[in-house]
Each structure stands twice: as structure tokens, then as C-alpha cells.
Specification:
Radius of gyration: 21 Å
Number of domains: 1
Order of helices and strands: HHEEEEEHEEH
Helix content: 25-40%
Number of strands: 7
Strand order of the largest sheet: 1-2-3-4-5-6-7
Distance between the termini: 58 Å
Number of helices: 4
Length: 187
């Protein structure tokens, strides 16, 4: 790359070389997804609310993400017989998902990710192009519909640890199992 190429890059009209992605909209979508999960969990655990050994409360937290900046959200604290578990948002800028929330307890962590409802494992595609190949790729893609015309529906799923990462549905039963896993030794 020559100095002329660098100068052309600096003067190509884009602000700082960054895309015009709407980070405020992404943050809003993320915070709504966090609230939706907390609402679901509260609903699933509602039958326990009369038990004096059970409590749910929320704490404000501040997250910092590179493109979004600093923002406030909350973590959910679940108390069962003196044991505590926290549902803590990690962030929306997570590779392979639209966000992650960790369920942390004294006996470990279970991770929840916001992914395409149709997926049962990560799907990552990487294309490497020369500048000429990329221009041809863009020209060929003009006017063509995307691979899937079906809109993506994002849902919360349990993600297993590497190396064989899989996604499992998150529902009342799987959440209850995950909660027991992190607050007591074994299932």
C-alpha cells in the first residue's frame, strides 16, 4: 500500500472509516432483550414467590462496550435458602450472538446467548476477498435476495462450553435446572 492509497482512504468520504451502523438502536434492542429474559424468569419462578426462602431483587450495573459506550442496565439476584445466583448481562457485542447473560452462582456459571431461533450451534461464515474480488462479489449480489427471506427471530438459549458449542432451548424447565446447577453442588 502506498502513501497515495492511504491518502485516498483518508479522503474517501466515510467518517473515520466506520460504517453507519445504528449503535443506539442496537443498544435499545439489547436492553429490551435483557428485560424480556428477566420478565420470563420472574414469570417462571412466580410460583415460588410465597416461599420465605425465595427472593428476587435487582441491582443497577454499568456496562462498557467499545462501540456503544457506557450504559446502565440491571442484574437479577435470585436467593434460594440463603444461596444466591445472579443473572448478569455481559454485553451485546458478542461474537456469534446478539448478546450474552451469565447465570453465576457459588458452584459455577451457565451462559445464555441471544441467537437465531433456528440455530442449535454457532454458524460463522468468513469470506476473504481481494479488493477486485470484493467489487465483483458486490456487483453479483446487487438485486439478488439474501439466502433466507425468512426474518430472523432472536431467542435466548443456553450455550455449552467449547470446544463443542451447542445451543439448547431456554424455558422454565431448563432455566430451573441451570439455577440448581449454579447454586448447589451437582444436580
Amino acid at each position: 500500500m502506498s502513501l497515495k492509497d492511504l491518502e485516498a482512504f483518508l479522503n474517501d468520504g466515510e467518517e473515520s472509516g466506520q460504517s453507519k451502523f445504528d449503535w443506539d438502536k442496537e443498544k435499545k434492542r439489547w436492553l429490551e432483550a435483557v428485560d424480556r429474559l428477566f420478565t420470563d424468569v420472574t414469570s417462571w419462578l412466580e410460583p415460588l414467590s410465597a416461599n420465605p426462602n425465595f427472593n428476587i431483587r435487582f441491582e443497577k450495573i454499568t456496562l462498557q462496550e467499545e462501540q456503544i459506550g457506557e450504559y446502565e442496565t440491571k442484574r437479577m439476584i435470585i436467593e434460594l435458602k440463603g444461596q444466591k445466583a445472579a443473572l448478569e448481562p455481559i454485553g451485546t457485542m458478542i461474537i456469534g450472538s446478539r448478546g450474552r447473560i451469565d447465570l453465576k452462582g457459588s458452584n459455577g456459571t451457565v451462559k445464555f446467548v441471544l441467537v437465531d431461533k433456528r440455530l442449535n450451534k454457532p454458524k460463522v461464515t468468513v469470506n476473504i476477498f481481494t479488493e477486485k474480488e470484493y467489487s465483483q462479489h458486490l456487483a453479483n449480489a446487487q438485486g439478488k435476495p439474501s439466502e433466507s427471506t425468512e426474518p430472523v427471530e432472536y431467542v435466548w438459549k443456553i450455550v455449552t462450553p467449547p470446544p463443542n458449542v451447542q445451543f439448547f432451548p431456554l424455558n422454565e424447565e431448563t432455566f430451573s435446572d441451570a439455577l440448581l446447577q449454579v447454586i448447589r453442588n451437582g444436580w
